[in-house]
Predict the structure.
Amino acid sequence: MKRQVFTCRYKELGNIRTRFSPLKSRVQSREEGLTHYEKKKYVWKMLYIYMLGYDVDFGHMEAVSLISAPKYPEKQVGYIVTSCLLNENHDFLRLAINTVRNDIIGRNETFQCLALTLVGNIGGREFAESLAPDVQKLLISSSCRPLVRKKAALCLLRLFRKNPDVVNIDGWSDRMAQLLDERDFGVLTSSMSLLVALVSNNHDAYWNCLPKCVKILERLARNQDVPPEYTYYGIPSPWLQVKTLRALQYFPTVEDPNTRRSLFENNASHAVLFEALALVMHLDAEKEMMSQCVALLGKFIAVREPNIRYLGLENMTRMLMVTEVQDIIKRHQAQIITSLKDPDISIRRRALDLLYGMCDVSNAKDIVEELLQYLSTADFAMREELSLKAAILAEKFAPDLSWYVDVILQLIDKAGDFVSDDIWFRVVQFVTNNEDLQPYAALKAREYLDKPAIHETMVKVSAYILGEYSHLLARGPACSPKEIFSIIHEKLPTVSTSTIPILLSTYAKILMHTQPPDQELQHQIWAIFSKYESCIDAEIQQRAVEYHALSMKGAALMDILAEMPKFPERQSSLIRKAENTEADTAEQSAAKLRAQQQASNALVVTDQRPANGTLPVNQLGLVKVPIMSNADQIIAEQGVTHENGALTVVDPQPQLPSTPSPDLLEDLLGPLAIEGPSGTGPQSEPRVASGFERGENADALAIAPVEEQANTVQPIGSIAERFHALCLKDSGVLYEDPYIQIGIKAEWRAHHGRYVIFLGNKNTAPLSSVQASILPPSHLNTELSLVPETIPPRAQVQCPLEVINLRPSRDLAVLDFSYKFGTQVVNVKLRLPAVFNKFLQPITVSAEEFFPQWRSLSGPPLKLQEVVRGVRPMPIAELANLLNSLRLMVCPGLDPNANNLIASTTFYSESTRAMLCLIRIETDPADRTQLRMTVASGDPTLTFELKEFIKEQIVYIPVPPQSPAPMPPQARPTSPPTAISDPGALLAGLL
Amino acid sequence: MGIRFVLMVNKQGQTRLAQYYEYLNLEERRALEGEIVRKCLARNEQQCSFVEHRNYKVVYRRYASLFFLVGVDNEENELAILEFIHLLVETMDRHFGNVCELDIMFHLEKAHFMLEEMVMNGCIVETSKSNILAPIQLMDKA
């Protein structure tokens, strides 16, 4: 079979096949016994073929088997080829684990190196589990030569990155510090990479490495004791310098950096220089140093060497995050604009980014005009980005609105193909909402229509604006309704079907505005309507028919086709779009971490969501359009009902920026289509959808789906309240309505739970078609015994339900229950109170037990800290009661400070078994609405889930729909590390 | 993570050396190599040595008919990588003496040995030429 596949695929590649077939058959006939030399030779050939891009699906076994060869040359081939061909999940790799381990703990240094490299390159979880302690031992062993230890450092780095939970790095800070005393540069370089990873995770613990790093830098900078082998063109190991400077950037400190260098002539020193600049930026040095940096960068972006220009621009963009130097950067604006015309696209892109970043009210006009000018010559790859950016800047920083309209119309004129619908919808919104702007916009639109060839998007905008506001121009030259009609109508044959409906609406509006009616024009337009009444496109046809009929009616036409009401204010979809793309590329770098710290320094951000992916740029990007005030918004909403009551009402759009906004097209076209459905459709859909999305978290919403489905039978009492009561106790009523009462009783033993569900018929008639099922979340195994189909009058049936907790999670199980009473079908979905805390067992710990445990769980992801704001204010005793009722046992007296609480508990699940959890809560007597919470346990998920769970219990939720669920569900699996490492929260807590 | 891949490609776009530090399957690699090589080969001497491609930044250097391309993430110092390429070439030069494409083609294993000594798990391990070449020389003697 293999041979067949092989021959088909490579038939045409005679050259390769001639090498391939003997190789393959030799490899496959290994029972004949290949010598090690032959095996080696063939395995290399295989790698060569693989490198050329052909699928090599045989011989992997041979490569892996070479690993256990006794001789170095074969072993080496085995290791290298295996790490090229296989990935960490490959089954064959498992076969090698033992050999690899023997090589690592063996005495042969060269074998150790090979094995460590393999694990370092493709080691997965199983390797981490069986090898991490050995690797750690090698790294710090004094008997090992540097040769082995440098590999061990990077091997450990890999294991740690891939499976931080498996690698125990407690107490490693001292060892890291020791490592940094090393003299060998190879070990230093690789240890520095390891340090960067460790520090970026938890900088507090690695304080003691800071002086060591500075010492290394000093040694390098003074060129003391640097072996000539590590001097690269006269510069002492630039790579180590760069890495060390990078590591320093992760320490949150302000220290006087004396690492700045002057301008040398070659790349290696430039590399160091750029990294030093980044460090200066990070340290937030005094202003003078900053301006020196910017001046230096300013020099860079003007040099001839393209690499330096590129990096100069890139670093300047990073510099923008430092507020003080923005003005200094602006001095280089002219040079940056010149870079926009650079022959190199990499440089042009950087320049565009920088211009976009540095734009503000003061220079928006210049920059946007430059962008527009550049647009006509820019290459296609950049046009879309360019036009989007220009549109956003114009909207964000417009000094006056007429300028904004100018810019967008120019944009459409120059790059119509790249202007998305969002952009022109937005301009129409602005014009509609600002009366002063209307005549100007109409005039401009009219001017553009005079141009010989215009883009279709331009036809759409112009037609729309002229339809609405052309009557404001009536006294201008060549602006009589007739003239306007004819100039628009000229374009009709050239446009696509999506534009025709807009043109038809325009005609109808022109007709309406023509007072007194012009018979000739009327007949012309009617003729067009009747022509399109038989159009194949449903939208066009509908409009033609309706407008035709309406325009016959005379006075009614006036009401229906009155001017469009104002649009409700909302966040610009453009800005949202830009944010989305930025959030996609979210990654954490030192500079960004720092920016997050800055953002929360200001303490204006009350957003409770963990800062995963919300970059500082986003927060700044949320600037509302300055012109629109709240008053406008109210008028806008009132306008909806007053100005054209006869029409289908424009939906008052949900004001929350987080709710998905319905298609904008709906807004522009909706009210014109007289029939309702398109207008009402989008209004209800998003609400229902969001209700379902959040159903599990927000109380009020949890009832919504129930009400919709069974609105005739009202539940007695609040389902949410009952649910909450049952979260804290084990028996009670879960649900009640006039016909049925559902009670539950639960028993918990470790990670097992047993519910008995009581279904009581309150009536004298039987309940039929009774159905119950559990919709379990992924972490619960549930088994519900059979539920009888009918419940006799005044009877109660019991259904046992078994629950097994597999792993920590806050998701909830839902009981989907339905029955029929008479002809009425009632269906309810009830959250089962098999919540997180049911699997907790309170436990008291003494001071002797607590402190060692607490210290041994050092840092994320096992120990998480968060400052929680918006807490329901309560005295400390009440908080202690609440914790106790959640089965978190408060241990009084452990913390000397009376404002702090320490609680402990054991969590049971199948994956974690019994796991001790420790909680410390520090409250501030002056401000009861915030507190700092530290949660520690031996399992990262458990720590995170427990922290979020407690947070949910103590955070005050005034109006559930407005404060979205603490965390969007889809973000949960990835978020723990980012939530933990939110330095902003930590910092704010310290303040 | 630093370095994601090291590629060596000749002027015709044929791969001569490829080492990835994150796993991509064959299809992905083929597509990636094709796209990047096309982008880089089209650039001239006056342009800078960095090309952004998908989420990589490609740092490249040209030596006669050979292109060395190193894909890095945003966390890496570009100039340091640029000089790292040169270090790699110098190392090969020291071993082969005036290294050329054929040297690498016919001694693929040696190129891999060197790279393995220099980079591991996407991080630079060793920058001393004699240390890098030590194992290869040992083997040659043996």
In short: Residues 718 and 735 of chain A are 8 Å apart (CA to CA). The first strand of chain A starts at residue 231 and ends at 232. The radius of gyration of chain A is 35 Å. Chain A touches chain B through 65 residues (CB under 8 Å).
